[in-house]
Amino acid sequence: MTNDFMNNNVSIILSTYNESESIKYTIDELIKNIKDVEIIVVDDNSPDGTFEILKNINYSKLKIYNRKKNKGLASAFLLGLINADGNIIGWLDSNMGVLAQKFPQMISNLDSSDIVLLSRYVDGGSDQRNIVRVIASQMINYVARFLLRSKIKDLSSGIFVMKREVLLDVVPIATGHGEFFVEFLYKAEKSGNKISEISYDHPVDIEGNSKSFPSLSKFLLFGFFYILRLAQTILRR
Fold first, then answer.
1. Residue 201 host element (H or E)
2. Number of C-alpha atoms within 13 angstroms, CB side, residue 199?
């Protein structure tokens, strides 16, 4: 890592809903792997005690926001952005603390990129989740790349770091679930930002499943929202 990026302030945004089993581990891993990291957690009023665990974590650069009305991944990301102080801003799924070890390499790669993604679809990447989710993610990414004419391999990754200046070119439209990030990446790419990808192995979620796949019907509904958002993105471009 160059001296320039070692000296930059880094803010990592996490969103939580019923993450009592994983949130402390994820925060500990971020603190261990990123020097003086600012951690911003947006909790959507979890009933499982997540917020209470957060309040008991003794770390001076931890910001916690407990929302009782507005909920959702996209708006949580926007709230995190508004309250982030770092020159580098990133996002990590709150139940994937094991991937915090990837962040020093990602931050280092900002020497030559504006956004650095973790990617399942570049050489060395893989996906260890349920076969239905693996195939669905591959299909969504294939369709998104085709429709948007994007060179990004993993548009739905959602695990990234970026230079704060990217927000001068594009800001997220904070509605929806993970599909908002596909549109954000596409617009950043179209605006001329350099986006690079680092391989990673997507682990099985700590809880054994993801909130985006609580049932087949909900999973199909999320898939529909992705396709709808792609159509809206194309119309807006």
1. strand 201-202
2. 8
In angstroms, the CA 145 to CA 139 distance is 10
**Rg, Å, the chain Cα set:** 17
User: Quick one: pLDDT at residue 137?
Assistant: 82
Average pLDDT, the chain: 86
Locate the domains of the chain by residue range.
7-236
Q: If you average pLDDT over residues 80-103, what whole number do you get? A: 96
| Three-state secondary-structure class, residue 145 | helix
Q: How far apart are CA 106 and CA 90, in angstroms?
A: 10
132-179 residue pLDDT tens: 878 888 888 888 888 888 999 999 888 999 999 999 999 887 776 667
Query: Going by C-beta distance under 8 Å and a sequence separation of 6 or more, which residues neighbour residue 55?
Result: 64
Phi, psi dihedral angles at 12 (to 5 degrees): -115, 130
Report how far Cα 41 is from the mean position of its chain's Cα atoms: 13
d(CA 221, CA 153): 23
Confidence bin at 45 (pLDDT 50/70/90) = very high
- Of 207, 170, 6, 3, the closest CA to residue 103 belongs to 6
Q: How many residues does the chain have?
A: 237
pLDDT attached to residue 174: 73
Strand pairing report for 201-202 and 160-163: unpaired
CATH of domain 7-236: 3.90.550.10
